[in-house]
């Protein structure tokens, strides 16, 4: 399950980077901000997965 969640977070990060780049190219600050938001969300998801992995290691 963890790998699936990490893959989703990575996809969200890539989507955010692309969206931010499109915003840069078009000069659209809203698109840039939305892209940065998606990247931040992906970072949080990765952090959650890291915490879950650490908790599993402690339990084992």
In words, what does this structure look like?
Helices cover about 95% and strands about 0% of the residues. The chain is mainly α. Helix 1 runs antiparallel to helix 2 (about 30-60).
Layout of secondary structure:
Blueprint: H1 2-26, H2 29-59
Helix pairs in contact: 1-2
Condensed summary:
By secondary structure, this protein is mainly α. The protein contains 2 helices and no strands.
Helix content: over 70%
Number of helices: 2
Shape: elongated
Q: Poorly predicted ranges (pLDDT <50, ≥5 residues)?
A: none
Distance between the termini: 17 Å
Quantity of strands, as a count: 0
State the secondary-structure class: mainly alpha
- Largest sheet geometry: none
Order of helices and strands: HH
Average pLDDT level: 94
**Beta strand %:** under 5%
* C-alpha-based Rg, rounded: 14 Å
Keywords:
mainly alpha
């Amino acid at each position: 399950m963890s790998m699936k969640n990490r893959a989703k977070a990575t996809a969200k990060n890539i989507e955010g980077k692309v969206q931010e780049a499109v915003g840069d190219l078009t000069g659209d600050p809203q698109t840039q901000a939305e892209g940065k938001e998606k990247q931040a969300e992906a970072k949080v998801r990765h952090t959650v997965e890291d915490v879950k992995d650490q908790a599993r290691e402690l339990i084992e």
